[in-house]
């Protein structure tokens, strides 16, 4: 069974006990904002994952590597619809080009979002067009590399007066960290369960 097939099958299993729930910051009030991201896995012998680099002028997470995604809007039927809409807006990925697999474990970000990862498969080498005002770059990283625990490094930094833990994955000079890395860690833990 291929890695992609194993990952798709793992979505149907109960969540393992060691999942990362998210970043809970002291003093944060109110309900988190519903959001969704698309974990687009390319259909090829060695599948990859499509990732974006956010533009430096963005209000939040400027310059960071992320999955395409964003807030769940009122017109979105569910998380999957939001993830597909955002991927179409951000990277020009047609909604009909994604074969949805399902959703993975939600993650709460330090900025107050409750993010649902939506997994789906896309053809390799689609002619995608990053949104010029939101996305500085679009690239594909190998799924096997991203899900290998040996490449997922636990780090720490001071934030808002406390020492915080986070994960980081470095691939070909690209630093994938924070919520994006945490969601990949959760996917690898699902595979291992």
Automatic annotation (TrEMBL):
Q: Which residues form the Nudix hydrolase domain?
A: 32-167
A Pfam family matched in the record: NUDIX
Q: Which PROSITE patterns match?
A: NUDIX (PS51462)
Q: Which domain of life is it from?
A: Bacteria
Question: Keywords in UniProt for this one?
Answer: Hydrolase, Magnesium, Manganese, Metal-binding
Can you say what this protein is called?
CoA pyrophosphatase
| PANTHER family from the UniProt entry | MITOCHONDRIAL COENZYME A DIPHOSPHATASE NUDT8, NUDIX HYDROLASE
Which co-factors does it depend on?
A: Mn(2+); Mg(2+)
Species whose genome carries this gene: Sphingomonas glaciei
Q: Which CDD domains match?
A: NUDIX_CoAse_Nudt7
User: Which SUPFAM superfamilies does the entry link to?
Assistant: Nudix
């Amino acid at each position: 069974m291929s890695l992609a097939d194993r990952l798709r099958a793992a979505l149907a299993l109960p969540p393992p006990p060691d999942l990362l729930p998210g970043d809970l910051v002291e003093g944060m009030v109110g309900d988190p904002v519903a959001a969704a991201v698309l974990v687009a896995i390319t259909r090829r012998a060695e599948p990859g994952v499509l990732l974006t680099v956010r533009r430096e002028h963005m209000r939040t997470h400027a310059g960071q590597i992320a999955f395409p995604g964003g807030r769940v809007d009122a017109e979105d039927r569910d998380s999957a619809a939001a993830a597909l809409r955002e991927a179409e807006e951000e990277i020009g990925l047609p909604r009909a080009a994604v074969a949805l697999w399902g959703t993975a474990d939600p993650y709460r970000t330090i900025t107050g979002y409750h993010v649902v990862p939506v997994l789906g498969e896309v053809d390799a080498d689609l002619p995608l067009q990053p949104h010029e005002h939101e996305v500085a770059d679009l690239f594909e990283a190998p799924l096997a590399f991203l899900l290998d625990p040996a490449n997922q490094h636990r780090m720490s930094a001071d934030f808002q007066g406390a020492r915080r833990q986070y994960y980081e994955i470095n691939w070909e000079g690209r630093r994938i960290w924070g919520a994006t890395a945490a969601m990949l860690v959760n996917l690898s833990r699902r595979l291992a369960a």
